[in-house]
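Protein modeling request. Please complete all fields; requests missing the sequence field cannot be processed.
Requester role: graduate student
Desired output: 3D structure, token encoding
Chains: 1
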Amino acid sequence: MKNTKLLVMGLVVSGIVLTGCQSNEAADNESENENSYVIGLDDTFAPMGFRNDDGDLVGFDIDLANAIADDLDYTISFQPIDWALKETELNAGNIDMIWNGYTITEERSEKVDFSTPYLENSQMIVTLAGNDIDTKQDLEGKKVAAQQSSSAVSAIEKDPSNILEEFEKGEVIQFPSNNDVFNDLISGRSEAIVVDETLGRFYMAQNESSEYKVLEDDFGKEEYAIGFRQDDDELREAFSDSLDKIMEENTYDDIYQKWFNN
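Delivered output (262 residues):
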């Protein structure tokens, strides 16, 4: 009987020890999860976030995100998403932030909260060399393309010249990615395209087989920022504070030089 009691007591103690270990492990995992975040991006948006020849995600935003994660001691991962559904993915909880050349607009501000702006951009008009398009007004009657649900489309729609009404069929031809947009221009189906200047100049530098013409006119200046759910104030403030810190240090300048001053 004594042996039985000792055995039962041993099992109880072992159970307590095991439970304690499991609780500690669960707490550690919970702590890790609390500081783990998923960034949604368009993985074709060079040079902000795209795949290199080895299939690895690289780019200005990738490097900047990793620098901030290191500063905050957070773990981040990158999730390619349908750019047309980016705010839906964010507010459904499938991602924790939108970060990939994400332009601040009034429409988007109704759906997300933005971090500190970190890069200026413009909506550039690109066509092929040798045609008769030299100004924004020359887009009258022309086929003009841009990425679906992009700030390029918003900029065209809100342009005070109302030039959109003069496009062929009074519409912007829209494609899922900017690669598709450029391909449509190169093929001659579109006669002009509107793209982010950051992407456009990088793309043209990497694809010199075609001769492009960039118009002096554009569809406006803008700023990039990180998009957060509107109830994630603590996370937004942490990333904004770290972003401000990094922008004051050499880290930001080093990343900028790497991607824009080669």
